[in-house]
Each structure stands twice: as structure tokens, then as C-alpha cells.
Amino acid sequence: MAAAALVTENFKFVSLFFKSKDVMIFNGLIALGTVASQTAYSVFAFNCPCFSGKNYRYGLAAIGVPALVFFLVGVMMNNNTWDLVSECRLRQCRKLSGAAAFAVLGNIIGRAMVAPLTWVVISLLQGQAYTCALSEFFDPSTLEGFPSDNGSEVMAKFPCEGSVPKELQGFWAEIERQLKYQSQLIGWLLVAGMSLMVFLLLCMKRCSSPLGYQQEDYWSQYRSNEKTLFQRTAAVHARLLAAENIKSFFGFVALEKEEKEQLAEHESVSPVCSTNWNRVTGVYLYREKNGLPLYSRLNKWATYNLEHNVEAMDKEMDTLY
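RESULT FIELD:
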């Protein structure tokens, strides 16, 4: 029982991998955008040098460099990346356990890998980059009647049909077919591996989640609504605070009609102290208080703020789970 409880405790954080349907839709849109980008790149920009020693570097770069760029962009676009940075900066990660770190990093890396893996798969299925990269390493002895005195310099020219010597042009279609077969086989195996991994992660998530399906769906809706309302309110608060400061400097402030109505509704706003900003910033994993769920750092802050117990709040706000 203790071992089962430990496994459940450590792996309940896997639910962060796929937190909502919105994430899955967003990942799908990223994949579609990557497909379009890869297709456009292949049509307009891919030009194999067809020269020994350069083919494999160019082919691997055509697959790997865009994938790396997509990965880095995915990491930067993930809010969990900056939550983790804030957690380490504000609290030195002292409350970040191994399981929590695994969950957060897994979420960041897992979501960031959607676009690069899509790029790699589409590149392999199209076969152009692979054909360019591996052409000079193709074994001509597998072709019946191919002259045995031709080395990698000649084989490197096969991705460019016009550069192939006339006496060898009859082999061009067969060599291209074999290389594309290898490329597409690797691509389909990668698709199968990715699908199996996603399936296993989803199974792990469902089996180890501390929440039922309905409550987990509610948690997802809560996070989405909280984020939307927080950003909208923060934008209005910042605008009104700026308006007050500008008015105190100039004696008046030029506002739109809607902004004047907002300013009339909220006669004055005051800055939020840095301590409270820090309390609602950083990594958060599911937690309960006296059996009641705390769905976010903001939810936790609001709950403890009602008790006016600063000491208990500071202790609790440093706790991830």
C-alpha cells in the first residue's frame, strides 16, 4: 500500500502534460502550421548541393536546424517555462520536488516537441532532405549493372538528376526510390513511436491523477477562466493606474469613452505590492485545504487572505503540493 501511495503521489503530476482540450487543439494547430511551413520550405528553399561532403551536412541541417528553432520557440511560448524560472528566482526551487520538476519539465518539453517532431516527420515522409543527406553513402553494389568504379563523388550527384553522368541516368529513379523508401520507413516508425508514447502518457495520466474526470475537467475550465479574467482585469487596472499617474502629472488625461466609464466606476486604484505578485507567481500543482480544492496560486492566496493570517499564508504559498 505504501509503495502504491508513493507511485500515485509521484506520478499524479503527469496530469500537467495534457491539462485541457485547449492544449490539444493548440498542439494540433501548431502541427498544421509546421506542415505548411515545411511544405513551403521544400518547394521554395530546399536545394541540395549534390557534392560529396556537403550533401549530408546540408540534408541534416535542413531537418535539424528548423526543428531546433521550433523547439526553442515552443519552450519560450510555454507559460510553464517562465513559471519555473520565477519559482527558481523567487523561492530557489527549495520546494520543487523531483516529481514536481519532472512534471513541469515534461510539460514544457512535451509541448515544445510537437512542432519539431512534426517537421522531422514531414521531412522524412517527403524524403528530399534524407535523399540529399544519404545519397553519397548509398551502396551501388545493390544495383544490378551499376559500374563498380564510381565512388561517393558520383553518388552525391544523384539528388540532382541533371548532374548525373548520362551513362548512369538510368539508375537515378531506382536510387531515389530506395532512398525515399528508407526515409519514409523511418518517418512512419517515428509516427508510430510518437503515437504509442502519447497513448501511454494519457493512460498514465488517467491512472495516476488524484482527481476524477469531472473535477479535472472543472479544474481545466477554472484555469482557463482565471487566466482570461486575470489578464483582462490586469489590463484595465494598469490602464487606470497609468491614467491616475498621468492626470497627477499633467492635470488631465485624454481617455476614450469606455476608459472614462471605467475610471468613473473605479474612482481610484492602488498598485499591488510586490509580495502579493510573488505569492501568485510561480509553479503550482494541485493542493487541497481541509478537503477543499485549491486550483491555483491565486485561489490559494485568496483562501488564506480571508483568514488574515500572514504567517500561515507565507508558509503555504511556498508549498507546491
